[in-house]
Amino acid sequence: MSNPYGHFEDPNREYVITRPDTPLPWLNFLGQDEYFALNTNTGGGYSFYKDARLRRLTRYRYNEMPYDNNGRYLFIKDGDTVWNPGWKPVKTELDSYECRHGLGYSRITSSKNGLEASVLIFVPPEENLEIWQTTLTNNSDAPKTFKLFSFVEFCLYDAQNDSTNFQRTYSIGEVEIEKNAIFHKTEYRERRDHYTMFASTRDIDGYDTSRDDFVGVHNGIHEPKAVLAGQPNNTQAFGWNPIGSHYHEITLQPGESTKHSYILAYVTVSGEKYIAPHVINKEPANAILDKYSDESAVDEAFAKLNGLWDDQLSTFQVETPCPIMNRMGNAWNQAQCMATFNLSRSASLFESGIGRGMGYRDSNQDLLGFVHMVPDKARQRILDISATQMSSGLCFHQYQPLTKKGNDEIGGGFMDDHLWLILSTTAYIRETGDVGILDEKVGYADVEEKTATLLDHLELSIRYTLENRGPHNLPLIGHADWNDCLNLNCFSTEPNESFQTASHNTAEEVAESLMIAGLFLKACLDLQGLYKFIGADAKAEETAAAHAEMLEAVETQGWDGDWYLRAFDTYKEPIGSHKNEEGKIYIESQGWLVMGGAGADNGRAEKTLDAVHEHLYTEDGCVLQQPPYQTYHLHLGEVSSYPPGYKENAGIFCHNNPWIHLALMQLGNGDRAYEYYLSVCPAAKEDKIETYRGEPYMYSQMIAGKDAATPGEAKNAGLTGTAAWTFLTISQGFAGIKPDYEGLQIDPCVPTAWPELKVTRKFRGKTFNITVQNPEGKSKGIKSLTVNGQAVEGDTIPLSSAAEENEVVAVIG
Ligand code: BGC
Ligand code: NOJ
User: Which UniProt key words apply to this protein (predicted)?
Assistant: First the structure.
C-alpha cells in the first residue's frame, strides 16, 4: 500500500513520516506515568504533569492558523538561513526530513545546507520530565559555525485560566535563570511545591525568557526577532508571557558531530515553608541535571524506555496471515490503549485538556485494553474510578486526574456509567486472579464514611439498573447512554431551543435504552462468573435471574422484526425502528444485545447482524445509524444536531464497530468479522490517505459516513475507546485468547482462509506459546487442545496444570 507521507517500519515499531506537510498534524503520545507530552511530526504539542488542565507546563494554541501551533522548537541560523528540524514554524524548505514516531518517543531528523539535526524526544519511564537529545552533524566539506536557539512557551499551569484570564496572567509570570537552566516558577509563590525547569546539558551562550523580546510583540513564532537578529537578549521575564530559550553558538568541522540534550522537567518540592526573598529550592532540579550531565545517561534512559515497551508488549504477541493485524495488534493498537489509559479523553489535538478529565465510562472501557500490560496500574484505576460512584448508584461522569475528584462538567445522569465498572473489574480479576480487590473499601463519593467495598459497588450497579426501568421494563436512559448524543428526555415548548438548554421533561423522564439493556446483560454474565469463582452461589443465581428477566423484556419489547430497537423516547415511541422515517436502525443495541446473549436461541442474533450488514456496513466501516437525521429534532437531542454522516448522526463511529466484530465472532462469522476489521483499521487506509487524513497508526474516533459531504475522512484521532475494543477484537476475537478465572480459554474465530496463527501470551506469570491450526478451513470451534503434548478437555487450559512455559496446539474443526 502506498502512502506518499510515510510508511510503517515494523521491526523497530516505528512509523516513518517522510514529508512534514501531512494531511493533518500526525501526533504521538509520550509518557506513561505522571508526565505526558503530545508531540506531532513537526515538533508541535505541549506537556503537562498528571492533569492537562491544572498542571499544564507549556502553551499550545488550539484551532490556530496554521493548525498545530506551538511546540518544542529548535531554530537554527546558519548564515542567512533560518530553519527548524521539524520544518515548522519557519517552514524553510529542507534538504531532507524524516520523523520517526515510535512507542513513547519521536525522532525528527532533517538537514539543510550540509548541516544535519536529529532530535530525539522522549519521556523516560518514571520521571517527570522530557528529553530532547539533539545531535548536530556537519556533513559539508567546510567548517560550519551556526546559531542554535531552543524554544518553549510556558503555560502558567492552570490552562483554563492561562487562556482566558489575561488581566491576571499577564502579571503573575515569574522565572529564574541559573547557569544553563531556566526555571519557570509562577504559582510557586502560592503553592511552593512545584516549578518547571528547562535546561541544556551544553553550556549556553545566552538565553531569553521574555517572549516579547525573543519573538517580538508584532511577530509570529515563524519569525522570532532574536533568531532573525542572530542573538539573544538575555532577558528575564516579569509577567506577560514567559518563555524558555537557550542560545548556543556552535562550530563543527567537516564530518564532526556534537550531541547535547534539553531537559524540560516538572519539579516538585515537598514540605517547604515560605522563604523570603522568593527563590525556589533548586535541589531536586540540580539532582536531575547531575543525573543527565552525561549523554550516556540519556542513552540509558532511552534504552530503559524501549525495554519497558518490549516488556509491556510481550504479554501478547500475535502472528496471523494478516500483516496489518500483526502490526496493529503487536504494537500500535496496544500503544494507543496505553494512551487512552493515561489520558482518557482529556488531551489530544481534538481535546483541549481543559474540557474533559478522565471519563467514568471511558476509563472503564479503556482498561479492557491495557489490563494485561499494566495490571497494577489497572487495579489503582478501578479503585479511583469506583470512588466517584455515588451511593444512589449514579456516577460522576468524569474526574480530574490531579485531584481524583468527580465532576459533572459535561453533564451527569448517564444511566450506563455504573455498569462499565463490572466489565472492567471482572476483566481485571480474570487477568490477575486478584479477588482481594473486591474487599477494598472505596466508599461512595457522597458518603463520608468509606465503608462500601468494591464488591458493594458492583452489586449496587446491577441493582440501580434493575430499579430504574421504564414502561417497557427496560433500563431508563437518563441524560444518555454510551451514545452521549441520544438525549431522549429533552423536552421544551420554547421555539429554537437547543439540546444544551432544553429542560428535561422531569415528570416523564421515561426514555429507555436497549443499549443499556445489552450492556446490563453482558455485565450480568460477567458478574455471574465472578460470583461463582468466589463461591457466592446464591448471588450468582440472583444475577442469572436478573439476566433472564432483562432478556425477557428485550425479546418481548425490543424486537422490531428484523433488528433490535435502539430505545423508546420520552413519549414511549420506539427509536431505531422501521416505523421511524430516519434513524430506523442503530448499531449499538445490535452489538451489545448479541454480546449479552440476546437472540441466541431464536435466530435473532444472526438476523440482526445481517441487518447491520445490509443497512450499516460500508467499506470504511459501519455507520452508527441509518438513515441519518436530515433536520434537528429537539426530542432526540444532540444526535440530530450534527449534519448527516458526521459523529453520532450516521458517522462511522469507530468505537462501536468492534462490538459488531465481537458479536460476529461470537456467532462464528470470522470472514465477515475480518472484512469489517479491515474496513475501519487505520493501517489499511494508506492508499486513500488523502481522503482519510488521519494517522495510519492510530484510530480516530470517527470516519465520516457515506451520507457525509466528505465520506471516508477521519477525525478526532488518538483518544477513543476504539483502541481497547479493537485490541479485544484481535486478542480475544480472532486469536481467541480469553483470560478466565481458572485458566486461559482458547476460543479463536478466524477467517476461513487462514490456515494458522500463533500467539505468545503471558498469563499470571506463565508463558503460553499457542499455535492455532485450521486444517479444515473453518472459523470457530476447538476440536482438540494439547498443552505440552497432553490432551486437554474443552477449550480452557487450567492454570493449575500449566508449567512456566507452555507449548499449546489448538485445532479448529
Ligand atoms: C460528542 C460526543 C462526546 C460528547 C461529550 C458530544 O458533542 O458528539 O462524541 O462524547 O460530546 O460530552
Ligand atoms: C465519545 C465519548 O468519549 C464516549 O464516552 C461516548 O460513548 C462516545 N463519544 C459516543 O457518544
Answer: Glycosyltransferase, Transferase
The pLDDT, as a whole number, for residue 574 is 97
Q: Which residue has the higher pLDDT, 497 or 800?
A: 800
Span 301-321, pLDDT tens digits: 999 999 999 999 999 999 999
Nearest alpha carbon, ligand 1 atom 12: 410
CA 483 to ligand 1 center in whole angstroms: 8
Domain ranges for the chain, please list them. Answer: 31-269+280-310, 735-812
Query: CA–CA separation, 236 vs 239, rounded Å?
Result: 10
Active site residue 484: yes
Options 158, 484, 569, 707, the catalytic residue: 484
Predicted pLDDT of residue 474: 98
| Whole-number CA gyration radius for the chain | 28
CA of 622 to the centre of ligand 2 (A): 16
Banded model confidence at residue 1, pLDDT cuts 50, 70, 90: low
Q: Tell me, what's the pLDDT at 635?
A: 85
Q: What does the angle CA 280 – CA 283 – CA 286 come to, to the nearest 5 degrees?
A: 110
Q: Is 270 exposed, middle or buried (0-12, 13-18, 19+ CB in 10 A)?
A: exposed
pTM for this entry: 0.97
| Amino acid, single-letter form, for residue 618 | T
Q: Categorise residue 108: left if φ over 0, alpha if ψ from -120 to 50, beta otherwise.
A: beta
Residues 303, 297: contact at Cβ < 8 Å?
Answer: no
Nearest atom (ligand 1) to Cα of 647: 8
Ligand 2 in reach of 483 Cβ (< 6 A): yes
Q: Is the CB of 637 under 6 A from ligand 2?
A: no
pLDDT reported for residue 502: 66
Whether 507 has a pLDDT exceeding 80, the answer reads: no
CATH architecture assigned to 735-812: Sandwich (2.60)
Question: Which CATH number among 3.90.1150.10, 3.40.50.300, 3.10.150.10, 2.70.98.40 corresponds to the domain 31-269+280-310?
Answer: 2.70.98.40
Predicted confidence band of residue 116 (pLDDT cuts 50, 70, 90): very high
Vertex 359, ends 719 and 121: CA angle to 5°?
Answer: 40
- Least-confidence region, from 248-252, 569-573, 688-692: 569-573
Mark out the alpha helices in 76-173 (DSSP H runs). 159-162, 166-169
* Alpha-carbon span 730 to 253, nearest angstrom: 52
Expressed in angstroms and rounded, the spacing between residue 639 Cα and the centre of ligand 1 is 9
505: pLDDT strictly greater than 60: no
Mutate which of 344, 408, 414, 655 for ligand 2 pocket (most atoms within 8 A of beta carbon):
655
Could you tell me if the CB of 482 is within 6 A of ligand 2? yes
Instruction: Decide if 331 contacts 313 (C-beta within 8 A).
Output: yes
Question: Residue 483 Cα, ligand 2 centroid: separation in angstroms?
Answer: 6
pLDDT tens column, 68-83: 999 999 999 999 999 9
Q: Does the beta carbon of 740 sit less than 6 angstroms from any atom of ligand 1?
A: no
Q: Which ligand is nearest to the CA of 358?
A: 2
Cβ of 359 less than 6 Å from ligand 2: yes
